[in-house]
């Protein structure tokens, strides 16, 4: 598996992954009928950088990195991760998250924050916790899950810098 920065030309290969995660409606606060142009804006244009994991020319997963807020909060970055259904349970998200922490440090960030980890997304909650992200907040019923109704969302945070 190779992880590299994505270019605008890669978006067509990322889109099926983003579209299917959005359509499921269970893990990201994106419209379930997300349009391709809006998906490109959210995943490639608003973020500072976007990366992808590939193997034999096939995209396995992707992440973006961007400042979580500005001004006095701009040393904290925010990332999002998606892995193709057929590539899950092979450590792709683990590799992407570890890569993103290196990217964050290289870009000068001191911490990483996930703003809306859906509490019912047990794989993600367990994975981010294992990779050192503390749960620093619980937003009660902050996400409308298509099957489960209003569910809690977690704020997860990791300090990356030595100091
Ligand atoms: C969450 C997600 C990114 C995980 O990707 P992944 O590449 O399958 O994750 P990994 O293979 O690195 O697995 C992480 C751990 O979870 C376990 N795991 C993964 N999928 C699992 C499943 N469906 N059931 C049980 N365990 C699972 C793995 O065995 C692994 O455990 P280990 O580290 O103890 O071996 C992926 O499921 C996904 O893209 N989901 C939709 C989008 C999403 O939820 N993004 C995160 C938003 S916060």
Description:
It is a single chain. The protein is an alpha+beta fold and 163 residues long. The protein has a single domain (2-159), classed as Gcn5-related N-acetyltransferase (GNAT) (Aminopeptidase). 29% of the residues lie in helices and 37% in strands. The protein has helices at 11-24, 36-45, 92-106, 122-130, and strands at residues 2-5, 49-55, 58-67, 76-83, 111-118, 134-145, 149-159. Strands 1-2-3-4-5-7-6 form a 7-stranded mixed beta sheet, with helices on both faces. The longest helix is centred in the middle third of the chain and has 15 residues, at 92-106. The N and C termini lie far apart (32 Å). Coenzyme A (COA) binds at residues 21, 27, 81-83, 88-94, 114, 117, 121, 123-124, 127, 130.
What's the structural blueprint in terms of helices and strands?
Layout: E1 2-5, H1 11-24, H2 36-45, E2 49-55, E3 58-67, E4 76-83, H3 92-106, E5 111-118, H4 122-130, E6 134-145, E7 149-159
Parallel strand pairs: 4-5
Antiparallel strand pairs: 1-2, 2-3, 3-4, 5-7, 6-7
Helix pairs in contact: 1-2
The structure holds coenzyme A.
Summary of the model, kept short:
This protein is of the alpha+beta class and 163 residues long. The protein has helices spanning 11-24, 36-45, 92-106, 122-130; strands at 2-5, 49-55, 58-67, 76-83, 111-118, 134-145, 149-159.
Query: Order of strands across the widest beta sheet?
Result: 1-2-3-4-5-7-6
Low-confidence stretches: none
Quote the CATH topology. Answer: Aminopeptidase
Taking all Cα atoms into account, the compactness measure Rg is 15 Å
Q: Which small-molecule ligands are present, each listed once? A: coenzyme A
The proportion of residues in beta strands is 35-45%
Amount of helix: 25-40%
CATH class: Alpha Beta
Coarse morphology: globular
Tally of individual domains: 1
Number of helices: 4
What structural class do helix, strand and pairing data support? alpha+beta
Biggest sheet, open or closed, and with what strands and sense?
A: 7 strands, mixed
CATH architecture: 3-Layer(aba) Sandwich
Let me know the average pLDDT: 97
Number of strands: 7
User: Which homologous superfamily in CATH is the superfamily?
Assistant: Gcn5-related N-acetyltransferase (GNAT)
Oligomer: single chain
């Amino acid at each position: 598996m190779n992880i590299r920065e994505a270019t605008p030309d890669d978006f067509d290969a990322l889109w099926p992954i983003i579209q299917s995660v959005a359509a499921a409606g269970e893990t990201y606060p994106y419209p379930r009928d997300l349009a391709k142009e809006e998906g490109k804006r959210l995943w490639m244009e608003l973020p500072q950088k976007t990366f992808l994991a590939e193997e034999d020319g096939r995209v396995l997963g992707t992440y973006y990195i961007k400042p979580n807020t500005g001004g006095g909060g701009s040393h904290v970055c925010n990332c999002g991760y998606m892995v193709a259904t057929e590539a899950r349970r092979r450590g792709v998200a683990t590799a992407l998250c570890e890569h993103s922490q290196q990217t964050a440090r290289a870009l000068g960030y001191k911490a990483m924050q996930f703003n809306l980890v859906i509490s019912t997304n047990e794989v993600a909650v367990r994975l981010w916790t294992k990779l050192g992200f503390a749960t620093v907040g619980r937003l009660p019923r902050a996400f409308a899950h298509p099957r489960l109704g209003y569910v809690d969302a977690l704020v997860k945070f990791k300090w990356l810098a030595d100091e």
